[in-house]
Every structure is written in structure tokens, then in C-alpha cells.
Amino acid sequence: MQGLVVETFRRHYTVALADGSRLDCVLKGRLATLACGDEVEIERIAGGGAITAVKPRQNLFYRSDAVRQKLIAANVTQILGVTAPDIALDEMLLNRWIVAAEAAHCRFVLIANKRDLSGFPALRERLKPYEALGYTTIETCAKNDVGALRPWLEGRQSVLIGQSGMGKSTLINALFPEARSETAAVSEALGSGKHTTTSATLHLLPSPPSGWVIDIPGMKVFGLAHLTPDALTAAFKDIAPLVAHCRFRDCRHDKEPGCAVQKALHEGQIHPKRLELLQTLIRESSLSA
Fold first, then answer.
1. In CATH terms, is domain 2-54 a member of 2.40.50.140?
2. Any bridge partners for residue 83, and if so which?
3. Cβ atoms of 196 and 169 closer than 8 Å
4. 2-9 and 60-64 as β-strands: parallel, antiparallel, unpaired?
5. What is the CATH number of domain 229-288?
6. What DSSP string runs through 235-249?
7. For residue 282, what is the enclosing H or E element?
8. Regarding predicted confidence, which is higher, 268 or 193?
9. Which of 49, 226, 243, 249 has the smallest count of CB within 10 Å of its CB?
10. CA pair distance 279, 289, nearest whole angstrom
11. Looking at residue 66, what is its pLDDT?
């Protein structure tokens, strides 16, 4: 039989079958760790199923540091970055999601949630630089209106990513009422959210139009140590076109003479924080090599 991995817990998986049923499965043999979105072949065994093979992946969306990696999702076409006005937005983290999406050849879309809050106009202004880079912002209020988001999900294989407290679980509940995801209120005293999602879960859209959305736990770190310096640079759509004009082929866009990226920075064509992040990621990549 064939199926789709929709839940993961260590080496145990829930697989959705073609007939709509679900089967608890374990990995057979020495197969590598799987992620939600993996397409697998299974056979029935006592108490459930055994995954015997994994189909080739179109891509793999994951994070890593110098020591280990954490798989997030396979066969993804779109990353949805959730933001909200009542949580301190970590823009360095947001930019890491964007780089990871670009490196995996996924479309990145911003979701500006909690449109009903008084601080929303300030969030809208803060996201404008990302719109200038070509990333679409979708405004929603997960508690009462997610209509603007639905068309962006149709026919797409999406990952919903965000800091804790941005309203991801509430969005999932609005989009998939059967999910019954646990939600939690934001701690006003700390200005941060409580973790309500503990593992990745894939939610299937009705077919047609088909597609799915993976909800993952809120995160505070997102390492990209697995990407080479060249891959990292290519993931910055505002910086990548400039690289060909640098004097040296191995330019790291820091203090090298004749650097076209530094020239663009001084002329105000790129944001300092974007270049700062690229240089940080290149250093991290070099340390893990």
C-alpha cells in the first residue's frame, strides 16, 4: 500500500491511506528518519503497519546546527510565516525562514494575523520591507476571518511556521475545524506565547482542490548550517544578483575590495540587517564544515 506521512513521533508515524483511513506505522529496517509530507510504501503488520520504502523527495525543509538536524517537512511547495502584533517579532528569525524557503525552492508568504488588535497598523508597516522584496502579506484574523488565506492554500503543500503565540493553532482550527488543536492565551506579562503544538501534524485539504498544510511547534531558533555559502547567498534575492559584480569570486561581502554588495549597502539598496544575517549564516556554515 502507499500513503502519506501525516504525523511523526520519533520512529513512529501516522500514515494517511488513499481510502481516507489512517494507520499507525513503524519504520522497517534501517530507513532514515521521515518527515510529514513523505510519500511511503507500507505493509500491514500486527497492530498497524510497517513503512518499507520512501519515495524520492522533491525537497526537504529542515533546520540544522553544527551538531544535528531537525526535519520539518518533505515535498513542500510553500512556507507560510505567521506574524502578529502582540508578540515581539524576531526579524532575524523571520529572515532565516525566508532563506530556508528560498533554498528549498518554496514560495514564501507572510501571514499578518490578529488584524483586530490595536497594534496591527504598526505590524503592517514593519512588514513593508518584505513586500518590497516581493513577498506577499496576507492579513487575517484567525478568530473570525481566514477567507483571504484559503485561496493561497489550494493545490499547495504548505508549512505553517511562526513564533509561539502568533496564533498558528487558532489558524489551523479555523481552516480545519476537525483538528481541534489546543490553543493558549498569550502571556501579557512576558509578551511571549505558550507552546501549544508539540509535534508536526499534516492537515489535508478537501479534494479537489487538494493540497495540505503542516502545523509545526513554535520555535525560537532556526539554524541553517547545512547550506553552503553559495547556497546561502543565492537565497537572498536582494543580494544574489549583485554577487556576479564583485571583484573576487570567493568574496564574502565583508571587507573585500571591489565588493558590489558592500557598494549597494552604502548606497542604500539593501538593508544592513539582511547583509548582517548573510554574513552570520556564512560564518555558521564555515564552522560546521
1. yes
2. 112
3. yes
4. unpaired
5. 1.10.40.50
6. T-TTTHHHHTTSSST
7. helix 272-288
8. 268
9. 249
10. 15
11. 77
